[in-house]
Amino acid sequence: MSSVKVAVRVRPFNAREVSRECDGIIEMDGNTTIITNPKQINDNIKSFNFDYSYWSIEPSAPQFASQERVYQDIGVEMLDHAFQGYNVCIFAYGQTGAGKSYTMMGKAEHDQEGIIPRICRNLFQRVSNSNDIDAQISVEVSYMEIYCERVRDLLNPKNKSHLRVREHPLLGPYVEDLSKMAVTSYEDIRDLMDQGNKARTVAATNMNETSSRSHAVFTIIFAQKTCDPVSGVETEKVSKISLVDLAGSERADSTGAKGTRLKEGANINKSLTTLGKVISALAEVSSAPASKKKKKAEFIPYRDSVLTWLLRENLGGNSKTAMVAALSPADINYDETLSTLRYADRAKQIMCKAVVNEDANAKMIRELREEISRLRDLLKAEGVQVEEDGSVIYSNDRHKAQELRNNAMNQSCTEETVNANPAEPPSAKAAVHQLQVNEKIMAELNETWEEKLRKTDDIRRHRETVFAEMGIALKEDGATVGIFSPKKTPHLVNLNEDPSMSECLIYYIKEGITRVGSAEANIPQDIQLIGLHIYNEHCIFENREGVVMLFPNEGALCYVNGRSVCQPLVLTTGSRVILGKNHVFRFTHPEQAWEKRGRALDESAPSAESLDWQFAQVELLEKQGIDLKKEMEKRLENMEEQFRKEKEERKKEYEKERQNYEARIDALQKQVEEQSMTMSMYSSYTNTEELNTEDDIYVNPLFEGEVPWTERDYQLAATCFQKWRFHQFTSLRDDLWGNAVFLKEANAISVELKKKVQFQFTLVTDTMYSPLPSDLAPAVEDDEEVAPDGRPYPRTIVAVEVKDQKNGATHFWSIEKLR
Prior knowledge:
With 819 residues, the chain is an alpha+beta fold. It has 20 helices and 32 strands. Strands 2, 6, 7, 8, 9, 12, 13, 14 and 15 form a 9-stranded mixed beta sheet that branches. Helix 2 packs across helix 4. About 9% of the residues have low confidence.
């Protein structure tokens, strides 16, 4: 067993955080990550320990962690496990814009590549450098996206509908009909990743979403077959490398999401919340005693979301797993950053039970063949025969007639692989379904490597045909799809809110007419777009002798450099072109760009790097009369005015409260003065030695003569004063407040030790009918007067009532005993 490797990585400040002058809240000391709460003065520092803590804010800093260092620590170790035959998984978690995609995918520059391309390149480097010439290596890859709990195949355009997630007793959870592409080199994988990212970008643009709203899972199935030269026994090790870029985690109130965005966020939060529940449950299982582990493991909610269902083996199962948590250093993201750190802290407690996957296919094929044979026998006994092509034949003619009647209804049902037949017995129906699933799986396992390569090539050609029909540029050799710069042909480059999706698609504007519209147009469109406000025939680009003009169709939304275009317009290199609501492009004319390089550059002109999606959106709003700066200033003024009003209201409330407290203090002061005067009066009366002194006798100014007091009057006054003095110095409030902390601690200890004992304060009065126990009775002072029965005057004290809930008994303790 091994625990999940957990690393955290903090990225540099982005432009938004710099503009808002945000402060840093993340510090790292070795493998310890420290976060500071900017809103609290006391107890504002929290620290977490992980396997790796990567500081990637300032490249010039000595502790700066580069892409290479992250790969050497995490990627190399996981690739070693894959060569040993283990399943491995690396997944990135964090809020939107925290750097997950950069860590996993990186950028096109060699030193900026992420974990995924480096693992793929290093895998084939190790294979080519291997000394075992008899080893047969096969590599297959799949690329899927989970969006709103639905699975998309990013490599096979034929799988247009959402794929279903199933579970097999031998395979475990898997995606039905997900394409697995056979590859023979790193270049093949790189091209497939590029094609998958293009398909992801096209789907995202059509649905007006970004990649941060979906989970991307890139899987490499790595098989090694070797033959022992002595015994001649063939052994095979199969490992699955799952590389997961999770969707961004954020709260709805922090993003301001509404409508469809809120629904997307709810699905993302559902999967991420379920992932958190699974991680917490697995952490509890890992720390639970051996006797309770099996019971706790039965209640792990893997099936509550598609993501956790597919990652079941990678979380606490047969896998070596690593997690990379991406952090923002800004104080405005404190809540999300702290949540990410707590998420990662729970994940490091998970224990996985990885085993070497040897001879997996041979064992699986044998068990599947036995299962198919058993199912065929079961169906034969029921009078049902399944042919090799999957068709079902019933020996009873009535069943066959019923099947023919239901064929029309069942042809449109694509979600189920078995036709519904009311006359078919439930056991036979389930057996037919399981038989067809097993035969499909066994057919995939029995495919030769040559058949897999042929199938991969067919899917590649079909995918390139689909891209070509949409107008997306192919490389000059026609073999792969990729980003390249045509030497002379003008083209459009897509821009996207998500940087990982920007500049993924290139559309040629050929010599002559290039039509832009949807696939439903009567005239075939050279560039096919789908989305909001895209007409069947949207616009036309005309390229004549190196001059490109845009001709918008009537009513079509077309914007160039933020201005609405209704008449033909000549485009210049660097122009921002927006078609409809979602499709944003940067127009590039290579010849014009070359001429600009030859001339002196205008320093005020924006660079190509700055002409991104954000620039185009701000420009569009400004040209449409919406000044963002003025809007922000207006909003800031409104917020300041609101703050001013609230401040004045709070000031008035404070002044009112202050006056109330001063009035209460004055009243209490007068009361104390009156009580002091009264006490001094009574003290003078009870001092019998000084009563003989005529000068000290209190004489009421209303009465000129001396007041005649009897002996009984003196005794009564002395008794009253004695009671007053006794109660004057009894402060129950001080006893309660001063000992509340001890009572709270006693109850906490009782709960911790699982003792069914409860402590609470009570008031007890010492009377003749309910005398206090000796340990609660207060000590009698020498000068204290007593009642005629010899006991002190009745007195109320604070005691502790101890309830023994287990035995149903109640005891009383003194305050001293509680302490």
